[in-house]
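User: I want to check something. If I give you two sequences, will you return the structure for each one separately, not as a complex?

Assistant: Yes, each is folded on its own. Here is the first sequence with its structure:
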Amino acid sequence: MGSPEPLIFSLQHFCVHDGPGIRSLVFFKGCPLRCVWCQNVESWKAEAEIGFKAHLCIACGRCVERCPERAIASPGRRDANRCRLCFTCVEACPSGAMTRVGVRRTPEEIVAELRPEFPLLRDSGGGVTFTGGEPALFPEFATDVARLLRSEGIPVALETGGLFNPERLNPLTAELQLILFDIKVFDGEQHRLLCGSENMVIKENLRSLVQATRLGQGPPVWPRLPLVPGMTDGPANIRSWAGLLRDVGTPFVTVVPYHHMGTVKRAWLGLPAGPDLRVPGDGEMAAAAGLFASEGIRAYHPGEEDFPAEATTGRASASG
């Protein structure tokens, strides 16, 4: 994982919860984490995948007829061991039920598709956010896209889960106006259980990025905590993260409510069902904000942040 040319699984438009202003989002495929509550499970694998959206299927049988490997017994029943991902079934499907997840796109192609939105992004103080998946696994490609965007005066933000090689990230951070840094489970063993990896590197990367900001060597860093009932909402978890944020000198955080979007995506990809989780209510969101506040950390709702002015400045790239 981490090839120079990643697959992109989505470009989303007119978003308001992933950085300042109105934003376009570029979703990178590939992630080193396996959070059990993940809402973008199609981002896990770096390779292209086939999804099946049963609600769109018209049972025409063309996927069965056209598959050269005879890997599809009936619509929705595909033998992954026989399938060689030629995507003939996707091309044959008239309803969009069979879908390809992940395509290779050049930096120029990405920027060209987003360019009609640039006037709106500029006027709103917005920009483009790289998300995923983990864009930091592909720093060379992300840097190329960011330079093209900045050459046209479009600010770029990076959303990261924090598990990356910091030495490879330096050229990219020089092109960014903002880093949205996801913090999840503070306890190392619980993080391994719920997110699939240790978190010492994540904590150290957070410290290093904030230190770089303080030294004028990197963009502002804004932490975000997904509030998942029974997993990240415990007082001990919130107080522990608040202590680290206070220690590194970052007295703010966005609390992002969990939602059920990942549930249907698991079905599309034939993945096992995830845990049965609740969407947090207003009271739980307020309680989390209150816990952070009691530790000296101001908590924001998504889209209501008071981002620093540097995050909305789409200055031209020195290398562009």
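And separately, the second sequence with its own structure:
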Amino acid sequence: MPVTYLKKALRTAESDQPDVRASVERLLAEIEAGGDDAARRLARELDKWEGEIVVSPETIRAAAALVPDKLKGDIRFAHGNIRRFAEAQRATIMDCNIEILPGLTAGQRQIPVSAAGCYVPGGRYSHIASAIMTITTAKVAGVPHIVACSPPRPGQGIPPAILFAMHLCGADVILNLGGVQGVAAMANGLFGLPKADILVGPGNQYVAEAKRILYGQVGIDMFAGRPTAWSLPMRRRTPSSSPGIWSVRPNTGTILPSGW
């Protein structure tokens, strides 16, 4: 029996991936060659951003003043929970050494990386949770330098709630940069920053492809996959229950390369 589609995407991750890869490779090459100036130019062209790239303390304070107290409380609550779990998790990872043979000692030491780059989506959706989960865990791990970046909105910059969360969680430097230029700035140590040893955080297909290409030059957390959904049918139902349990894992871009 033939399959009849009620609705079918004209574009898929596979169909667009060659174009995405070529575009990202070109942008990464431009930024590597042009440095800060190339990143600023791409911010103007792609994000329509003409303002500061390195967010100033004054801008952070002004943004915090715009965030409602209720939202600030919610962000602090989430940050506290994630920090406490990360601290408990870190406490389970111990240094150790043992004398295998007389005069032969083996062991392990847990040493944090020197610099981490945290990407926080802020285009179609503002991912406050991404700021909390990436920056907080790096801080608890003892990373001495944490850079965070997020796409600026024209005439505004990074949304105030994201900026508040980034600062609260411990970002040492925040960049008004999104997309490939944000990832490349952290990986290449632009704007006077140390080069990131690892890049973390979700993003659209361009961000995911930039991390894929840069993997090896820097470490990454994972390759983001495409959005998925699944359902579990329930054997027994009560009048008040639903016929099944649904779970949806969204991602930030309309098309993402499948990594897992």
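Because they were folded independently, the notes below concern the second chain alone. Residues 24-82+112-220 form a domain with the Rossmann fold fold (CATH 3.40.50.1980). DSSP finds seven helices and nine strands in the chain.
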